[in-house]
Amino acid sequence: MSIMVLFFSFAADRMNARQKLYDLDGTMTVKEFFEKFLVKPLGDPFDAWLFSVNQEWVDGDALLHDGDEVAVVPPVSGG
Amino acid sequence: MSIMVLFFSFAADRMNARQKLYDLDGTMTVKEFFEKFLVKPLGDPFDAWLFSVNQEWVDGDALLHDGDEVAVVPPVSGG
Amino acid sequence: MDVYQITQQVIDPSALLQALEDPGAGAQVLFLGTVRNEFEGRASQGLFYDVYPQMAEAQIRKIGEELKEEFSVRHIVIVHRIGSLPVGTISVAVAVSAAHRDAAFAAARAGIDRVKERVPIWKKEHWADGSSAWHDDKS
Amino acid sequence: MDVYQITQQVIDPSALLQALEDPGAGAQVLFLGTVRNEFEGRASQGLFYDVYPQMAEAQIRKIGEELKEEFSVRHIVIVHRIGSLPVGTISVAVAVSAAHRDAAFAAARAGIDRVKERVPIWKKEHWADGSSAWHDDKS
């Protein structure tokens, strides 16, 4: 299965990318995915980020499915 | 001494006047003035009205002076 | 720039917002009161506003000065229109700019509350059936 | 009419207030967020707003629907501008019409609070000294 992961703000800067496609061996949670693929390049631990799946905010135990659009982003600061 | 008394809204309707000059024998309070000259033509008791002297809200024990501009009006309802 | 006005002219929200402009302001709150098509369930075609003009101007200026003392605000606009106004017309505007939104919301809310309590303006309802009556007249 | 929009265009408060018009509305509250000339005491020349566009539009629409359920309001406008905005520019507008002012103030306040909590938009400060930095970036 594969998921498209989007990055914004300084998450995009640290990844040097606005989006990346990841191939996963099997289903996993958002937190498991983060720890396996993202904690190193992003540099800050899980609690420093927000996560959405298919444009809804989720927490770490949300399960990922083939074709999901995931965003891994800093706290929002609009306004 | 004389005072100019202004009426607005249904106070003006009941007085058939927007303003009237009153000659007073001597100094008196707003409440004394109201009871002597206005309770009858206005029809409602003292507590039904608001009073200002020289464009500041006052209560019934404010003293009247020669040349004062007094307003006797219903509760305000702007907005 | 602060604006305190009793007027017979149309209230233009854009002009009021321009008066509030300030490079240090992050938050503007504008309250507009408009004439409704009903009051307590009875259909209305509009309102007539009577005013004690000099006292009303003095009172809105005083309310503005109080808001400046009590809240961290930059600029204040309080404008009340008088005369006969049909349904939908803006009758009153209270607008505030501030660095942050807490102060802007609190000051705008306090502003309109005090206008309604203390500014000598009275409403006569023009009912849809052609009759009319002053608000608060129990006779 | 309700309006929910993420835009790169100038936000025009008059157009937003027109969208709110309703003969049953006696109260309109408009909140405008503008770009400030400083942040935490440091001089700034403006902000760049990054956005996750489809999600941001979905979130502001959802906030509008929540406000309609929770408060007695007639119409709701939520618009957020993105891109590079100089000091003084309107970046966000939340506007509400209602029969009465309690509901209009409460809904407008809840609206901007939720926009700032949940809409995926991020600010980069362009400091007056020429450097720039994302908000909340502690690295």
From TrEMBL, chains A, B:
Keyword Membrane among UniProt keywords: no
A Pfam family this chain is assigned to: ThiS
Keywords for this protein: Nucleotide-binding
UniProt KW Nucleotide-binding keyword: yes
Similarity section: Belongs to the MoaD family.
Name used for this protein in its record: Molybdopterin synthase sulfur carrier subunit
Native source species: Sulfobacillus thermotolerans
TrEMBL record, chains C, D:
High-level lineage: Bacteria, Bacillati, Bacillota, Clostridia, Eubacteriales
Pfam entry (one): MoaE
Protein name: Molybdopterin synthase
